[in-house]
Specification:
Helix content: under 10%
Strand content: 25-35%
Shape: globular
Mean pLDDT: 97
Bound molecules: MU-OXO-diiron, calcium ion
Distance between the termini: 20 Å
Pfam families: PhoX (PF05787)
Structural class: mainly beta
Radius of gyration: 23 Å
Organism: Georgenia soli
Number of domains: 1
InterPro entries: PhoX, TAT_signal
Low-confidence stretches: none
Number of strands: 32
Protein name: Phosphatase
C-alpha cells in the first residue's frame, strides 16, 4: 500500500499509487484543472486552436508545445501571477495530421519554430470561489509574450562578438535568433528568469562535413549530428546546416536570462556560465551577497557546474543586477568518496554505511568586463566557455549519471542534485561506479545532497552524501536516506526539483522505468521523516512531469509530451489527455478541495 497521510508538515497527504491511467491523478481530497494547453490563445488577436489547420502565424500567438520549466511570480494585486514557461521541443508526429518525418513541409517546420522557445503569461485567481485554487490565463495582458525561433537574443559576456560565434547572418556575433530546447530554469532574487538550452545539438545537421580535426572533435563532444537532423530544419534555413554556417551551434547551449516584467527587453544568453547541455540554473546568494548559479549538464558521464559572480547583488538596482552573470568564475565539480574499499555497483552500502565524501569546485574560467581568463591549460578563456565540456575533461571533473536539476535549498543552502539515470555506468568501455555514482547500469537514478564548506555558496570545497538511490523500494540497491522502505513510494528517474515552504524537497520524474506513469513526489529532508518519499500526483500516458512549483496552497506542474511513445501518432495517439482528442502538453494546477494548505493535517 502507498504511504498514508502521516508525514512531515507539508507532506501529510495519502500518497498516490503507481498507475498507468491516462489522466492526472491527485491524492484524495485534492482537485486539479488544466490552466493552459498547447495552442491556447495568449493575445487578443490569437486565433482559436485548430490542430487540423494550424499555421505558424497562429502558433506565434498561442501557448507553445512541450511546456517544461514553470516559474510563477506573484504580482501585486489579489490573485495575480506571472507564469514563465519553457517550450522545450516539438513532437511533430503528434502535432500534424499525416506527418512524414522524411519530408516535413515548410509550414510544419515554421510551426515547430513558433512552437519552440518560451512563453510569459499572466494568470489570475479572480472570479473563483474562496476555496478554489483554480487559475485562468489573462488573454491580452500587456506582459504576455511569446519567444520563438524568430525572436532576438543578445549574446552577453566574454564570448559575445568572438570569432567562434560570428556567422554569415550575424557577422558581429552578438545577436542570435531564438532559443532551443529550453529545459529547466530558475527565478533570480533580482526578479529575472533563467532558462537552460539543453539538447541543442539535435537541431543541427552535417557535422560530418567538417574536416578540421579540432572542430570535428568539438562537434562530436557535443553530439551534433554527422548527417541530416531529425527535424530536417536545415532544408529550410541553412543556419542549421553546419556545412554552410559552421558556428551557428556555438550560439546555442547557453543559459538565457529574461526580464519578464519588461515586455520590450531583449533576453540575453549569459556566456560566462559556459556552454553545455544546460538543464537549468538556480541561484543562491553567498553570505556576502554574491550570486552563485548551480547548473547540470544532462548527459551520461557529464558534469555539475557552478558560477560565482564577482559582484554583489544590490536590492532594487536593476541595472547593476543585470550585469551579475557576466562577471565571475565558472567551476566544475569533482566528487571524492570517503569509504575504504571498492564501490561494488550493486547498491551495497560502503563500509562506513553511507555513500558520501568531499569535493572541490575546480575553476575553469574567470570572466571580467568582457575578458575571459582561462584556468585550463591549453584552452583560451573563450574556448573554455564555448567548449566547457572539454574544459571539464581537461581538469578531471567527476563524470556523473546525467545531472538534471541542481537547486540550492532556500533556507539551508544545501544543494540537491537529481542524477536521472545512466544505464551505461560500469558497462565495458565506460567509467565504473564510484561513491557519488554508486550503481552499475543505473536505471532509476539518484539524488545527491551537497553542503558547501562554511555553508558559503562561494566555497571551493564541499561535502556531499547521497539522499536517495531511486527505484522500487523492494530492490535492495535502493536507499531512502535510511528511512523504512515499507513506507515510501517507488520513484524512478528524478529530473526537476523544487522546495515547499516547510523545507521539503519535491521531485518530478522523467521516464519512470518501473512500468507506471511519471509523477511528482515530496520528500522530507529534516526530522524523523527524512527520506520518506511520497507520490503527490501522476501524469497521463507517455507524459513527463515538469516544472514543479509548490506554494502552500497550490501545486503546479507542466505535463510535457502526453502520448509520446513508439507508434503514437496524431491519428492514433497513445494519450487523449486532456480533452479526449489529440494530446496537448499543458499547465496543471492542484489544490485542496477544502481550501486548506497543501499537505497539512
Ligand atoms: Fe530536458 Fe534534462 O531534461
Ligand atoms: Ca562513505
Ligand atoms: Ca528536465
Ligand atoms: Ca529529463
Amino acid at each position: 500500500a502507498p504511504p498514508g497521510a502521516a508525514g512531515a508538515p507539508g507532506l501529510r497527504f495519502s500518497a498516490v499509487a503507481p498507475n498507468t491511467t491516462d489522466a492526472v491523478v491527485v491524492p484524495p481530497g485534492y482537485l486539479h484543472e488544466v490552466v493552459l494547453r498547447w495552442g491556447d490563445p495568449l493575445f487578443d488577436d490569437s486565433p482559436e486552436f485548430d490542430p487540423y489547420h494550424q499555421t505558424a502565424e497562429a502558433q506565434e500567438r498561442q501557448f507553445g508545445y512541450n511546456c517544461d520549466y514553470l516559474g510563477l511570480f506573484r504580482r501585486r494585486g489579489n490573485g495575480n501571477f506571472l507564469l514563465v514557461a519553457n517550450h522545450e521541443y516539438t513532437n511533430e508526429e503528434l502535432m500534424f495530421p499525416g506527418y512524414d518525418p522524411e519530408n516535413p513541409t515548410r509550414e510544419q517546420v515554421e510551426i515547430a519554430w513558433a512552437a519552440h522557445s518560451l512563453s510569459v503569461v499572466a494568470l489570475t485567481a479572480e472570479g473563483r470561489g474562496r476555496r478554489s485554487g483554480g487559475l485562468d490565463p489573462v488573454v491580452g495582458h500587456p506582459l504576455n509574450r511569446r519567444f520563438t525561433m524568430r525572436s532576438e537574443f543578445e549574446l552577453s559576456g566574454p564570448v559575445a562578438g568572438d570569432a567562434l560565434v560570428r556567422t554569415p547572418d550575424d557577422p558581429d556575433g552578438r545577436t542570435v535568433l531564438g532559443t532551443l530546447n529550453n529545459c529547466a530554469g530558475g527565478l533570480t532574487p533580482w526578479g529575472t528568469w533563467l532558462t537552460g538550452e539543453e539538447n541543442f545539438n539535435q537541431y543541427f545537421a552535417n557535422a560530418g562535413t567538417v574536416t578540421d580535426p579540432k572542430a570535428a572533435e568539438r562537434l562530436r563532444r557535443y553530439g551534433v549530428n554527422k548527417g541530416p537532423s531529425g527535424r530536417k530544419w536545415e532544408r529550410f534555413d541553412d543556419r542549421f546546416d553546419i556545412s554552410v554556417q559552421p558556428n551557428e551551434p556555438n550560439r546555442f547551449g547557453w543559459v538565457c536570462e529574461i526580464d519578464p516584467f519588461d515586455p520590450e527587453s531583449t533576453p540575453r544568453k549569459r556566456t560566462a556560465l559556459g556552454r553545455f547541455k544546460h538543464e537549468g540554473a538556480t541561484i543562491s546568494l553567498t553570505p556576502d551577497g554574491r550570486a552563485a548559479a548551480y547548473m547540470g549538464d544532462d548527459e551520461r558521464f557529464d558534469y555539475v557546474y557552478k558560477f560565482v559572480s564577482r559582484d554583489r547583488y544590490r536590492e532594487g538596482d536593476h541595472e547593476h543586477n543585470a550585469t551579475l552573470l557576466d562577471n565571475g568564475t565558472l567551476y566544475v565539480a569533482r566528487f571524492t568518496g570517503d569509504s575504504p574499499g571498492e564501490i561494488t555497483g550493486d547498491g551495497k552500502l560502503p563500509a562506513d554505511g553511507e555513500f558520501d565524501g568531499s569535493g572541490e569546485w575546480l575553476p575553469l574560467v574567470t570572466s571580467a568586463d568582457g575578458e575571459a581568463h582561462s584556468h585550463v591549460p591549453g584552452m583560451s578563456g573563450v574556448e573554455a566557455l564555448v567548449f566547457a565540456r572539454q574544459a571539464g575533461d581537461a581538469v578531471g571533473a567527476t563524470k556523473m549519471d546525467r545531472p538534471e536539476d541542481v537547486e540550492p535549498h532556500p533556507d539551508t543552502g544545501r544543494v540537491y542534485m537529481a542524477l536521472t539515470n545512466n544505464t551505461n555506468r560500469g558497462l565495458p568501455g565506460y567509467a565504473g561506479p564510484d561513491e557519488a555514482n554508486p550503481r552499475r547500469a543505473n536505471k532509476h537514478g539518484h539524488v545527491i545532497e551537497l553542503r558547501e564548506s562554511d555553508d558559503d555558496a562561494a566555497s571551493t570545497t564541499f561535502s556531499w552524501r547521497i539522499l536517495l538511490v531511486c527505484g522500487d523500494p523492494k530492490d535492495p540497491s535502493t536507499y531512502f536516506a535510511g528511512y523504512d522502505k515499507d513506507q515510501v513510494s517507488p520513484i524512478s528517474c528524478p529530473d526537476n526539483v523544487t522546495f515547499d515552504k516547510y523545507g521539503n524537497l519535491w521531485i518530478s520524474t522523467d521516464g519512470n522505468q518501473l512500468g507506471s506513469n511519471d509523477g511528482l513526489f515530496g520528500v522530507a529532508l529534516e526530522g524523523p521523516y527524512r527520506g520518506q518519499v511520497k507520490q503527490f500526483l501522476t501524469v497521463p500516458v507517455g507524459a513527463e512531469t515538469c516544472g514543479p512549483w509548490v506554494t502552500d496552497d497550490r501545486v503546479l506542474v507542466h505535463v510535457q509530451h502526453p502520448g509520446e511513445a513508439d507508434g503514437s501518432t496524431f491519428e492514433n495517439p497513445l494519450s487523449h489527455w486532456p480533452d479526449g482528442g489529440v494530446p496537448r502538453p499543458s499547465c496543471v494546477v492542484v489544490w485542496r478541495a477544502d481550501g486548506r494548505k497543501i499537505g497539512t493535517a
